Amino acid sequence: MNSKTIELNAERWSRAEDLFGRAADLRAGERERFLQSECGDDVELHDYIISLLQADPALDGAIERTIVNTVRVAFGEDPSQAEQMKGQMIGPYRVERLLGAGGMGMVYLAERADQQYDQQVAIKLGRHRLVDPQMELRLRNERQFLANLDHPNIARLLDGGTTADGVPYIVMEYIDGVRIDTYCDLHRLTIDERLKLFQTICAAVHYAHQNLIIHRDIKATNILVTGDGTPKLLDFGIAKLTDAEGSATDGLTRDGAVIMTFTNAAPEQITGQCVTTATDVYGLGLLLFNLLSGVRAYETDGLTPREIALQICEDEKTSPSRRLLQQRKAAQAENDTVALEKLKRIAADRSTSLDRLQRRLHGDLDTIVLNALRKEPARRYRSASAFADDIGRYLNSMPIVARADSWRYRAGKFVQRHVAAVSAAALVVVLLTAFSVALSIQNRAVVKERDTAREVIQFLEDIFMAHDPSRARGADVTAEEILAEGADRIQSNLGDRPEIQSALMGTIGRVYYNLGEYQSSEKMLQQALQLQIQTSGEAHPSVAVIKNDLAEVLFRRAEYGRAAELLQQALAVNQLSNDGTSPLVATNLFNLANVYLATGKLDEAEAAVRSSVAIFVQISDQFGLELAEAKSTLARILQVRGDLDQTESLLRDAIEIVNESEGPDHPYMAYYLQNLGVLQRSKGDLVAAEQTLQLAVEATRRILGDNHELLAIVLVDQGMLLQMKGDYDEAVRVVRTAIELDIQIHGPGHPRVGLHKTILGMLLHDKNDLEDAEASLQDALLIFDEALGDDHQYIASALTELGAVLNTTGRAEQARPVLERALQMRLKDYPPEHVLVAATQAEYGDTLSRLGQFEEAESLLRQSVIVLGDRPDRRSRRANAALERLEALAGLRDQ
Amino acid sequence: MSTSATVTTLLRDWRSGDKRALEELTPLIYDDLRRVAARHLQSERSGHTLQATALVNEAFVRLAEADLSFQDRAHFFSVAARTMRHILTDYGRARRAQKRGGGVSPVTLHEDCMAGIGDTDIVDIDDALTRLAEIDARKSDILVLHFFGGMTFEETAEALGISPATVDRDLRFAKAWLANELKDN
User: Fold this and answer.
1) Nearest to A58 among B46, B116, B184 (CB)
2) Closest among A800, A802, A805, A851 to A830, alpha carbons compared
3) What is the pLDDT of residues A224-245, one digit of tens each?
4) What domain range is B103 assigned to?
5) What is the ipTM, given to two decimal places?
6) What is the CA radius of gyration of chain B?
7) Would an 8 Å CB–CB cutoff place B163 in contact with chain A?
8) What is the reported pTM?
9) Among A78, A438, A858, B10, which residue's Cβ finds the most Cβ atoms within 10 Å?
């Protein structure tokens, strides 16, 4: 008898069973007391029950795996054949043992017999002899092609040929690994870890696609993860190679294999259409579906091939979170504890709970997966790398590119105000991230009570729970709704806990800030600030933290006076309670510099940002990005001062710093290169600008993907450069490309489209393509009208240019109300000496001079020329030209 | 008489107490399980893990008539699950013998993983189930039907003539017992 089994007579056995059942229902903490009182002196029984209770439920899965494994080898291997093959030669390789039975036949582990290389290989031996000699040639060419794939995450194809009997074989790098889904489960990889691993696979697939090779059969069994965690894709292009004899439909209808092959097919494989790289994107989508949710994308059990095919070709696929929910509900309805346990194990394998897993997947991750599984290949991610990029954006808490189609229609006001609707799950992530960021900043200054932090997190989760999609209406909850409710609950439930109230309001305020909801953000942070002052007094470091954040919001709302005041107060507190290398002080100084810069106080701005740089330099190992940002701000100041050489060197510093601390693939690289290109352009160094902007385009594509909004921005910069070079046609073409990209990314009604159409209007105006210019500007205004309400500065920009076009086409009377409105809008938000005010004033002055109101026109134009100076930019050029025109017109009159 | 009609008749006979019917039924199922599994593995092109329970299911679809009653269905599965256990265990013992005899390294498929219970193999599982049968035959049966037949509580309850609630309770304890037995293997 096994030592683990204690001597149990029938009576004791049923006693053990009874105690186990009752103890299992208790919470872990209560079990010990229960068992002690029940078992009394029978320590043996007590210990036995404990060991039963501790038996790992994961072993259940291990038992199943052992059985599955045995099934495979017991049925799959023909032992006589395997034994026969042992020691046999296939080409120059000696067979060691059978590895498995794969799609095309047997797979053997073998070694090169001539000892030329001490290398173990996997040999796939075909099932059939080749009959057609042409085929052998074709296979050889194909193999050569595949052998060129050289990527750390792709198992190499080493060799191939036909045996003496004429059976084709291929020799591949032997990978000693575990299939990816098993690997993820065994190591209990979290969703983030799985996503990162998956990104690596996407990169490998993308590499193959760039080499014109399609995998065609991406699935978990074809991806092994080695002991050091490196994923390796097997069988690239092999499906085609080994299917040379098979039918064109990838053997889908081959008798007997129907169900098994269907489950991984893409719709176009079912309908017999062309297999492209998009087929692999689909395969990646199915893989990700399963890696994330642990369940298959669709039901296959007990269905006929036809039913399965219909599901695959169905466009509206069920999302991963919904599939989990459906299975859970079904299991609950049928009281199927086995199925429920299985679901719980799926969650446990992802180091989370089932509730959390569902919530985590709901929203962006659902959308990302479904975007890869669209029925039409053209509507999926355009490439494996675009797929990986979107996951990257998700991991960085940035808005993803993929959008569920229906969102566009469902999205409410919140979206119209061009802030992406955030699903409940994503929002909690944002909330918690914002909180932890705030916490980590505070931690540097004060030792925050851990309990408060825990309560805050608990509270955030509670808010979220109220929006658990499985309980709520099933619709996406907008961020606005959930935040509003959170704010309400903080006020009503936590009146007696001001310190927690304050922390929560601060967090929600920061989230509003990140969402671009500055008014709500200000309100929240304002309340947080008051509460914090009440609790801790004015001089507390937490007060300084909130003041800093509030100032950032006020900065965005252009309330520079109040922002500066708060920052100075925060700075005073932080300087008192920290040493000279405090990141808090440096941050305050950095923000202060930006406020000064915005109000034109260049001396103060420069002093502040230089102090900020001086601090960040000392702690640059931890704050490399902040240092780069501070340097880039200093660059902007010096740019305004006209010290363009110094500006350029600072931007180059910033690029260098990011490169060193984060590597060449940090998103800031793309942004700084764009800045540098724009700077060189304004220096008139058009050759360098052209080069840098080209680098910026490349970096953007590489780092942020072909679908990133920065790409459109850089393209527009390129367009403006081309305009300066006098290449108007090319300029217009490039900007139009950018606009197409904008539409693709943001949809046709997005303000960015309007903004770039405004720029297009300027280019067309300069090109003297006046009709198109006017149309483009009218388009822009329509978009702004829909999307921005009626007081946004973008509108003023478009109106200004429209007025200018109307002036040019001799319709000054029509231009007048347009420019009056534009000027009013400018003056509402900017001081009279602001560049933008001056630019609008110049066009309005031009209108007035064309209408013969010379005195008023002259005063406006002179003001604007003073502000705009005589720099070689468009605004200044136009203002000076208008003044000259006035002088000419007035001169005519005087004559 | 077609195979499915034969199977159906045998199932009914067995249920009404004819022991010989089971003796005739088992080899039919045995052969079919082997055939189905072998064909799957040879033509396999997908990552579908070939599960014992899936094979049992498919054997059922192939061998039994569509309008089989729930009771007969449950009995079919119980026979198939037991048969599956024996096929796999026989194979496992043969492997072990071979290992001792010829020094052949154990066959492990690169795409599978047995981690979690160390070197436990099918024979260890079988031995444990046999030990359990000596203490509590019903629980051992339930585990066999669960792991090798993939049967629902209702089917298990029907096949063993007990209530689904009992199956649930027994299974929970039996799984813990089995896991505990295999723990440090």
Assistant:
1) B116
2) A800
3) 998 889 999 987 766 555 443 3
4) 3-182
5) 0.80
6) 17
7) no
8) 0.39
9) B10
